[in-house]
Amino acid sequence: MNLKDKRVCITGGKGFLGRHIVRQFEKRGYKKLFVADLPEFDLRTLDDVILMYKKIKPDVVVHLAARVGGIGANREHPGEFFFDNLTMGVFLLDQAHRYKVDKFVALGTICCYPKFTKVPFKEKDIWDGYPEETNAPYGLAKKMLLVQSQAYRQQYGFNSIFLMPVNLYGPSDNFDPSSSHVIPALIKKFVDAEGGKKAALKWFYNTSASRQLCTTARDRKVTVWGSGKATREFLYVEDCAEAIVLATEKYNKPDPVNIGAGFEISIKALTHLIAKLLKYNGTIKWDRTKPDGQPRRMLDTSRARKEFGFQAKTKFEEGLKKTIEWYLKT
Questions:
Q1: pLDDT (tens digit, 9 = 90+) per residue, 89-120?
Q2: 269: number of CA atoms within 13 Å, CB side?
Q3: Backbone angles phi, psi at 24, to 5 degrees
Q4: Of 30, 53, 113, 138, which one is the catalytic site residue?
Q5: How far is CA 93 from CA 127, 144, 148, 172, 217, in A?
Q6: How far apart (Å, rounded) are the C-alpha atoms in residues 89 and 141?
Q7: What DSSP designation does 194 have?
Q8: What is the pTM of this model?
Q9: Considering only CA atoms, which of 62, 91, 13 is closest in space to residue 160?
């Protein structure tokens, strides 16, 4: 399907992933790009969804808009995470069918998978159990997009695909401690413990310096949730944007597709790596009263490679350095 002359609408296009996807489409020569986001459109309401379709008249919709956050935010707002994500998906996909949109790209999440899934996660395992409790409302709401996508393809012949990205990170990430995911949360904690961005910048760029442990350093303390034993897989946001654009162009099947980098790292190892990159030399304390979340996460990414030629390019430490640098300079 040649899409470069089509009208492409990206919901949530002002957000973290959305900005990178818009740039990726632009790099590939797309000219008719439209963003549907707050405050112009509240996609949780049917009236605004209908208004979006009438105003933009899209040929293709890439649905990124979502209510997202880390473990803490999911525990505090499970009802909102369920309702907001469910209603956005249901309204947007149904109206896409009614307005005869050529293609709908639905973004799911790794949280769709059962809590105890054999590693690496294969797409066929998605229905083999209940999601991890702290993010189940979010994961199940997003999972309903897969059900709706396949149902509309079966009944109406509607071309909708479903992609499941792993945890993302990179420049423009959300560093708000009330809603951030683990990588930006850790970066902010270490930077704050060092005395703020200016102090951290001095050490970040001084590659030859090693910090000596001193009395003031011993007073610094960063507290991390859980035991550190849980593992996660992380995908650099620019790589994810490329994967979504490739799938938009080339993938037209009902089966869900994992989008990831194909590796796992423990939260403890991640924490120490970020500390090393920021030359943090204080104390790290593990708060075991807080949940670890899902025990392990790592995706089988062979379907994405086979179906539309995607393979992550950015090495993890390189991506972390770019993310830290962006944060320190903002």
A1: 999 999 999 999 999 999 999 999 999 999 99
A2: 10
A3: -65, -40
A4: 138
A5: 22, 11, 8, 27, 53
A6: 8
A7: T
A8: 0.92
A9: 62
Please confirm, yes or no, whether 152 is among the known catalytic residues.
no
**In the chain, alpha helices (H):** 16-27, 46-56, 71-76, 78-98, 136-156, 182-193, 197-204, 215-219, 237-250, 267-277, 302-308, 316-329
Q: What pLDDT digit, counting tens, does each position of 285-302 carry? A: 999 999 898 999 999 999
Domains of the chain and any CATH numbers: 8-170+234-260+298-313 (3.40.50.720)
CB distance 33 to 8 below 8 Å: yes
Question: 318 burial class (0-12, 13-18, 19+ CB within 10 angstroms)?
Answer: exposed
Structure tokens at 279: 């030359």
Find the helix or strand (DSSP H, E) in which 10 lies: strand 8-11
161 in Cβ contact with 247 (< 8 Å): yes
Assess contact for 161 and 105: CB atoms under 8 A. Answer: yes
Ordered DSSP codes for 51-75: HHHHHH--SEEEE-------HHHHH
- Amino acid letter for position 51: L
> Tokens for 219?
């007073």
Q: What is the DSSP letter of 121?
A: B
Rounded CA separation 184/168 (Å): 10
Among 160, 164, 163, 142, CA closest to 152: 160
Residue 246 has what DSSP assignment?
H
d(CA 145, CA 192): 39
